[in-house]
Structures are given as structure tokens and as C-alpha cells.
TrEMBL record:
The keyword Hydrolase applies. Keywords: Hydrolase. Residues 91-310 form the Alpha/beta hydrolase fold-3 domain. This is Alpha/Beta hydrolase protein. Pfam families: Abhydrolase_3 (PF07859). InterPro entries: AB_hydrolase_3, AB_hydrolase_fold, GDXG_lipolytic_enzyme. The keyword Hydrolase applies. GO terms for molecular function: hydrolase activity. It comes from the Eukaryota. SUPFAM superfamilies: alpha/beta-Hydrolases (SSF53474).
Length: 345
């Protein structure tokens, strides 16, 4: 159905052969070393030159109590030039990494830039990783952090500089997109969030369906790319299966496979970014369609011919610049209340 989206982008095409030759590393320790080298260091090099002045924001690491432990969350808050007190909308971010890799450092520089550019307070969550901490530990950690954010903001606005009445957004990439999707459903049904509801969600190349889940027949015609997207460098069908195996849980549990929730009605507006050369492509496109069918406002952008999380490894190509522009435009759209105004399309 979407096979044309797999045609390689001309700027990316020269890199495919080298990327396809990289073997899948199954050893978790080695995989984490590779992840930190390829993604964390590259992200810091990319965004290091774009960092705002350190007088324009402040960041603080907090320790948050979770079940049987503590996790780190990092807040990044704009500062005023005159030193006066101000409050900002809030975004809670969950990093990617297949639930088994990553930390707050991965997107740290990028989030600092967004914090200042859009004048938004950001909380970056370092949930515990699988397989040492299998599902639902990561989801529960993020949900605890989400509730901590509201409690902390209510007790001391100066701590996070946040006023969720100005905007309360959850966001994440890949595994982080999965976590954000689950949190949106949990919060929708939780009285704790009454009168302080989440106002938007950003799902970047989200993993919303375990490949071993029992999928309704009506969905199957829309789910072809997982096995058929052979030119998917960096994220293959085998690596996806391995990530879900490490995550654990029942594949057909909606908190493992958010696509399978019985209802998506009443969720906050969603910005969804999808890559054409990505085995997760079709499930993300179907997820957006399911949201829209239940009257959830969505803003979908597709990036033909580039792979999963390409913006980390190839930040200099035009498609990566478009990704960054769309990310910020989508965030502004959510902060403006997700209007149907044509100027946002």
C-alpha cells in the first residue's frame, strides 16, 4: 500500500550499502556501547553548535522515587533576562533506544534548544531499562514521573517553571513514542489528571505493535511493511523482535501494543512523524488513522525514503532539516490548541 515510501531518498541512498553491512549486535553490553557511540555522541556533535547561551535556561537533575528504586529526571527551564519569575507550558519527554538503551543524555542538547526556542519547560525521563527491568517497569517509571511533575509544579512553580494550564504535552521517539502513547491512554482514564489533562502528544516513529501480537483481521491489509521493508538499515525486523523480547510482557496487551487498545477516543491531539524506510511505518500510519477515526485531532508527516531515527545519523540532509522544522511546528500547533486552521497544515 505504501511501498512507494520505501524508495530511497537521493541524499540518503549512497549510505545504504554501508549501513546494511553493519551486523546486528545481540550482546546487550556491546549494543549499549554502540548506541552511546552512534546516537548519543552524534546527537551531541549535531546540537552542540546550536545550544543557546547557558544564561537562557537552567537544567537540574532530580531523583524521583519509583517502585523499588529511584530514577533520574532532568528539567530544562527557560530563564528570563531580568531574573523575574515566569511560568511556561510543559513537555515530558521519553527517550528512544528499544527500551534497552539510552538515557537523558541522548536528547539533552536538542531539548535545551527547544526549551529556549519555544519557551517551554521540559522534563526528560530516564526510565529503567529492559531486560533487567522488564515491562511494565519502564511504563510505570514514566507514569510515576508524569505524576511527580504535576505534584512538583503544584508545590513549587519555581522548581520546574511549569504551568500545565498553558500546555501539557507528552512526547517520545521510537520506544519513547510507545511509552508516550501508553501514558496518554492511562492519563485519559485516571482521575488524578482531572482538571490538568494532557493537552497533546508527540509520537516520533513510534513502536505501537509487537510483531507477535494477535492482530485483528481488519488491520492486516494495512500492516505490510514490517517484513516487506527489506531496505531498512539500522532497524530490521529481527532487531524489532529482539527489542520486544527484551521489553517483555504479553504481546497482545495494549500497554505493549498500543495499536490494540479497544478505544482511542478522548485522547489528546497527536503529532505523528513517520519514516518511509522503516519497518514500523505501516503500524504508525494505521495508528494515526485509528486516532483520527475516533475524532482525535492529528498532524501526520511522512518522510519518504529515510530510515528509522535517520535524523540522528544523518542530520545534514534536507529531510533531517524538514524533520526538525516539522517537530517544532507540530509542538507549536499543540501549544496553540491544535486548531484546524489551514495555516497549520
Amino acid at each position: 500500500m505504501y511501498s512507494h515510501l520505501s524508495e530511497p531518498d537521493p541524499e540518503f541512498a549512497p549510505h545504504i550499502a554501508a549501513l546494511m553491512a553493519i551486523p546486528l549486535i545481540s550482546d546487550l553490553h556491546e549494543r549499549r556501547k554502540q548506541f552511546d557511540t552512534v546516537f548519543v555522541e552524534t546527537a551531541r556533535k549535531t546540537y552542540g553548535s546550536r545550544l543557546p547561551k547557558d544564561t537562557e535556561y537552567c537544567f537540574t537533575d532530580h531523583q524521583v522515587d519509583v517502585a523499588n528504586g529511584k530514577i533520574r529526571v532532568r528539567s530544562v527551564v527557560p530563564t528570563t533576562q531580568d531574573g523575574s519569575h515566569a511560568t511556561y507550558p510543559l513537555m515530558v519527554w521519553m527517550h528512544g533506544g528499544g527500551w534497552a538503551n539510552g538515557n537523558v543524555e541522548l536528547d539533552d542538547y536538542q531539548l535545551r534548544a527547544i526549551c529556549v526556542e519555544l519557551q517551554i519547560s521540559i522534563v526528560n525521563v530516564e526510565y529503567r531499562l529492559a531486560p533487567e527491568h522488564p515491562h511494565p517497569t519502564g511504563v510505570n517509571d514514566c507514569y510515576t514521573a508524569l505524576k511527580w511533575v504535576l505534584t512538583a509544579a503544584a508545590e513549587s512553580q519555581s522548581l520546574l517553571g511549569a504551568d500545565v494550564k498553558k500546555g501539557f504535552i507528552i512526547a517520545g521517539l521510537s520506544a519513547g513514542g510507545h511509552l508516550a502513547a501508553v501514558l496518554a491512554h492511562r492519563a485519559r482514564d485516571d482521575p488524578f489528571f482531572k482538571d490538568r489533562e494532557i493537552t497533546g502528544q508527540i509520537l516520533q516513529v513510534p513502536a505501537v505493535l509487537n510483531p507477535n501480537a494477535a492482530v485483528p483481521e481488519k488491520y492486516k491489509p494495512s500492516l505490510l511493511s514490517f517484513e516487506q521493508n527489506k531496505l531498512a538499515p539500522g532497524l530490521t525486523a529481527d532487531s524489532i523482535r529482539l527489542s520486544f523480547e527484551r521489553l517483555g510482557g504479553d504481546p497482545s496487551d495494549p500497554e505493549v501494543s498500543p495499536l490494540l487498545y479497544s478505544s482511542h477516543a478522548g485522547l489528546p491531539p497527536a503529532v505523528i512523524q513517520v519514516c518511509g524506510l522503516d519497518p514500523l511505518r505501516d503500524e504508525a500510519l494505521l495508528y494515526e488513522k485509528l486516532l483520527k477515526n475516533e475524532s482525535v485531532e492529528t498532524r501526520l508527516t511522512v518522510y519518504p525514503g529515510v530510515p528509522h531515527a535517520f535524523n540522528y545519523g544523518f542530520p545534514g540532509i534536507k529531510m533531517a532539516a524538514k524533520w526538525e522544522e516539522d517537530y517544532r511546528a507540530g509542538l507549536r500547533w499543540l501549544l496553540d490548541g491544535a486548531p484546524r486552521d489551514a495555516s497549520y497544515l
